[in-house]
Design goal:
The protein has about 350 residues and is of the alpha+beta class. Strands 1, 2, 3 and 4 form a 4-stranded antiparallel beta sheet that branches. A hairpin with a 4-residue loop joins strand 2 and strand 3. Helix 7 runs antiparallel to helix 13. The longest helix is centred in the middle third of the chain and has 29 residues.
Length: about 350
């Protein structure tokens, strides 16, 4: 639910950004979206601490510094590579190649970060990729391979590493991670926007972009990180891939757009892949029950009582991609067998 909620909040960004881009440059918009996420979560964190009565989440330490720094650098590099890709190839090709981020994320998670990925999840990832390709297909020109395509694939690789770096620190405060990601990536993007000669938007539009960034980037990334704590990088990325479909749905409502038949074809495939993902998630949690009998001997003066007890043990095994936890629940079955000896 965290992953799907993250996708839904991010999906709102697509139609709203179409409106906001009329009033600000692309890089400047990206910078303010990141800053909106960082500043918004900074304020959110203050309220969160007040509501929880001073209860603190586990904070980032020097041990996580390499992953944190890599996360910020990759978040700045990926949009730059994407911009060069957009400039060097057609939009259909960009949309098509962007879909491979989930595949890159999964391969990096498996090969480098040793994340366990089941056969069922690989099938779901394959179906998600096919559905996304169908959704973004705009003709044979989308298969053009040129320098722009290389830049787009470079952006996907950056985001794939960024997703895995974020997973490595996802057990820490999700609010703190988003504040760092938003503020540092926002400032970096802002510097690049100035170097590109983009002007600051009017105050009212800057405020609108910041607010959109808080919701579509800030809260979305926070829920994404919370999902990674339980699902791992590959599966979270797979669930999150419903975002483009939700984006189309929001565009229908907000912009009056009507999708073509390929949307409904892709939606069916996506629905089937989601069923596989849900089954894979549920399969990770299973219970085993067994019984055994043992005796307790109690002495009362000259009378010895031997009580035979039957215990039922329920073992709840919760598996995720990186760890395994065991919970043992002991339930005494009512009624004992008593053996009395003098």
């Amino acid at each position: 639910m965290y992953a799907i909620l993250a996708a839904a909040l991010y999906a709102v960004n697509a139609p709203i950004s179409k409106l906001l881009l009329k009033h600000a440059g692309a890089t400047m918009t990206a910078a303010f979206l990141y800053l909106g996420a960082g500043i918004g979560l900074l304020l959110y964190g203050g309220i969160e601490r007040q509501v929880k009565g001073g209860k603190k989440q586990e904070r980032l330490t020097q041990k996580e510094l390499p992953y944190t720094a890599a996360m910020v650098v990759l978040d700045i590099a990926a949009p730059i590579l994407l911009m060069y890709g957009i400039a060097g190839t057609n939009s259909a090709n960009v949309s098509l190649l962007n879909n491979f981020e989930i595949v890159v994320t999964s391969i990096i998670a498996l090969v480098i970060f040793r994340e366990v990925i089941s056969g069922r999840l690989w099938l779901a990832i394959f179906m998600v990729t096919i559905a996304s390709v169908i959704l973004s297909f705009e003709g044979m020109e989308a298969f053009a391979v040129n320098q722009g395509s290389i830049f787009v694939l470079g952006a996907c690789i950056c985001w794939g590493f960024e997703n895995n770096c974020t997973k490595m620190i996802s057990n820490k405060s999700s609010t703190e991670i988003v504040v760092i990601k938003g503020c540092f990536s926002g400032v970096g993007s802002l510097v690049i926007a100035w170097l590109l000669g983009e002007r600051l938007p009017e105050v009212k539009w800057a405020a609108a972009i910041l607010l959109s960034g808080f919701v579509a980037y800030g809260l979305s990334i926070k829920f994404y990180i919370m999902a990674q704590q339980h699902l791992g990088a590959a599966k979270t990325s797979a669930y999150y891939s419903v975002a483009p479909f939700l984006g189309v749905a929001f565009s229908m409502v907000l912009l009056g757009e009507r999708p073509s038949i390929q949307f409904y074809t892709a939606l069916v495939i996506m629905a089937v892949s989601t069923v596989f993902m849900i089954k894979d998630t549920v399969a990770l949690q299973h219970t085993h029950e067994h019984e055994h009998v043992h005796t307790h001997e109690h002495s009362h003066g000259g009378l010895v009582h031997t009580h035979e007890h039957t215990h039922r043990h329920t073992h709840l095994h919760i598996h995720n991609s990186n760890s395994e936890a065991h919970m043992h629940l002991h339930d005494d079955i009512p009624g004992h067998e008593h053996t009395h000896t003098a």
